[in-house]
Structure formats: C-alpha cells, structure tokens
Amino acid sequence: MVHFTVAICTYNGEKRLPQVLDCLKTQVNTENFSWEILVVDNNSIDKTAQVVRDYQSSWPFSCYLKYCLENQQGAGFARKRAIKEAIAPLVGFLDDDNLPEPNWVAAAYAFSQEHPKAGAYGSQIHGDFEVETPPNFQRIKAFFAITERGQTPILYEPQKKVLPPSAGLVVRKEAWQNSVPNRSILNGRAGGSMLTSEDLEVLSYIQQAGWEIWYNPRMQMKHKIARRRLEKDYLISFFRGIGLSRHVTRMLSVKPWVRPLAFVAYMLNDLRKIAVHLLKYGTQVKTEVVAACEMELFVSSLVSSFYLWRNGYLTGKNIFDFPSVSEPISITKLEE
After folding, report:
1. Cα angle 263-268-272, degrees, rounded to a multiple of 5
2. If you compute the radius of gyration of the chain from its CA atoms, what whole number of angstroms results?
3. Exposure b/e, 18-56, CB count within 10 A at least 16 = b
4. Which of 21, 148, 181, 193 places its Cα 20 to 30 Å from the Cα of 326?
C-alpha cells in the first residue's frame, strides 16, 4: 500500500523540475510509511518527459517515480489528473518551482494522522526571488503563494474567507472525490487566458462539504519566483486574472438565495476600494507597480461576473447558478 503521493504538476519544467526531484531525494523520516512521486506533465513542449525518464533510469530510492501526460492545458486539469492517477489516499501538490525542506513529506503525512478530519492543509511557504522585489511588494506578497503564518497550526475558518494556495497543499483524496464537481468553472491559466484561482474553487467545495482545512507550519518549502514574474506587464496580467476569477470564489461560499444581495454588496465594495485607492495614490496607479496591480485587481473584480458570463464560463442564464458536487459543468483569493 502507498500512503502518500507527491504530485508535481509542471508545464515546460525541463530546467526547474530537477531541483524539485533533487529535494525529494533527500527526504528524511519516511521509513514508517510508503510514498510515491508522480510527475504530471501538463502538455509541455520542451524536454520535460526526457528529464523524468533520465531520473527514472537511475532512481535508487524505495519510493516510485512515475510520469503521466495531461494534454488539457491548465493547472486545474493537471491536478485533477493527479488525483485520478495517485494510488495513495493523500496527495501532496508541488509546482515545479517549489523546493520542499527535507522533512516536508514526513511532516505532511504525520499531520494527516493527527487531524483525520482535515480534507486539505497547506504549507509554510517562503519566497525565493531571482531579483529584488518592487517597492511596497509586501502589500501583494500573499498573491505569490507566500504563506508565513507563524509556527502554530491554524484552522481556516469558513467565515473568514481565507484559504491556502495550491503550492505545497496536501489533499485527502476522499475529500476531493466526494466534494469537487467533475468539471470546475476555473481551470487555471491556459491558451492566453490568465484566469486563475482554480485551487480556491476546489478548496471552497471541500470546505463546504464539512472537511477541515489547515495551515501546517511544519511543512516548509521555498517558492522560487523568476525575474519575469516581477515585471510590470506580467504582474498586471496576473492581477487581472485573479480579479476576473473572483465572482466564482466569492459566490461559492454564499448561500444561493443570498447571492443577489452579496453581488450588490461586493460591487459597492469594489467601487469603494477603487475610489479610496485613487484618492490615496492618485497618479501612482499608473507609475508605481504595486499600486497599479492593486487597481487592476479592484477593477477586474468589479467586472468579474460580467466577464465570466459573457465568455461562457457560467453555463446557466443566471450568473448566480453554480453546480452541485454531482453536477458536471462545461467549464489557491477569497476576500472579505
């Protein structure tokens, strides 16, 4: 029996993937349970598959190193494929720019034994930046999956509308299979689209089904952030995608009959944020990177529902209709 699966979802990870696999080679305190590594290649066009084959040919460890190809582009599709292919009842997700500490696997497995009602739990994540961050980066740091909430485990309470990112996230396979629809609305960045938050959609379903979601500080890792991800054009596009996805992550946690009222309240709050931001920063929203990102987030959040409906992400005529767990549909930031 395999107790734990590490799933590495990667797209064109030829240069990044070896560092992750090397970190997994050095895992300690795993003698009392069995585990495997599954690389999910999300339709790469580089030599990702060859890199995995090279590692497999000389893999000396007791844990298996497996590979599968997911042709549908998008992190959401890759993670669903990982859930399908994983043998173990626990799946720990790593991106190809996540470097886990030597005890990450052991800490992840131990937490599952201590918290049997945990449907998912996230890591303590530290940023490892290739270049210096822009001024005032602290204001947007959390959107880069940097999660530093101290050294005590924290239960994410539904009413606070905060959830962990998918990087370094462990999911109980039973919780996913019994809570998440066959197809979700958001599936990650693909085909030129920067829509994101597919991880938060999944976690919202799991949390609504009654499973606990935790922050586990003993699972520590570094998130390597490349130079291009701190360039202004990328950042603006990135925050636009987060904002345009927000109608889904907002409404999933709201009871259906309350959604029209919540929709109006969110729109008024977005307008308030835009006005306050303009008053506070003025012309800096065009010249200062962080202020520009925040403005893009607020404006995109305001129009999110109309964008998703117009582009076919919402299947019904009613923009407040969302699927039940058993209802398939065609198409990791909740906020206050």
Report:
1. 145
2. 20
3. ebbbebbeebeebeebbbbbbbbbbbbeeebeebbeebe
4. 193
What number of residues does the chain have? 336
pLDDT in tens, 2-21: 999 999 999 999 999 999 99
Cα distance between residue 325 and residue 252, in whole Å: 12
Question: Which whole-number Å values give the CA distances from 254 to 162, 195, 299, in the listed order?
Answer: 14, 21, 22
- Output the pLDDT for position 62: 78
Nearest to 336 by CA among 261, 260, 246: 246
C-alpha 40/C-alpha 20 separation (Å) is: 13
Amino acid found at 5: T
| Residue type at 53 in one-letter notation | R
For residue 228, CA distances in Å to 85, 251, 333 come to: 32, 32, 22
233 or 309, which is more confident?
233
Query: Which residues lie below 8 Å from residue 282, measured CB to CB, with a gap of 6+?
Result: none
| Distance, CA of 53 to chain centre | 27
> Any idea where the domains of the chain sit in the sequence?
4-230, 234-310
Is residue 264 classed exposed, middle or buried when 0-12, 13-18 and 19+ CB atoms within 10 A define those classes? exposed
Q: What share of the chain is helix, strand, coil (3-state, %, to 5)?
A: 45, 20, 40
Mean pLDDT for the stretch of residues 35-48: 96
Q: Can you tell me whether residue 167 is helix, strand or coil?
A: coil
4-230 is classed in which CATH architecture?
Answer: Alpha-Beta Complex (3.90)
- Distance (Å, rounded) from C-alpha 328 to C-alpha 252? 15
* Average pLDDT of span 70-74: 92
Confidence check: pLDDT of 193 > 80: no
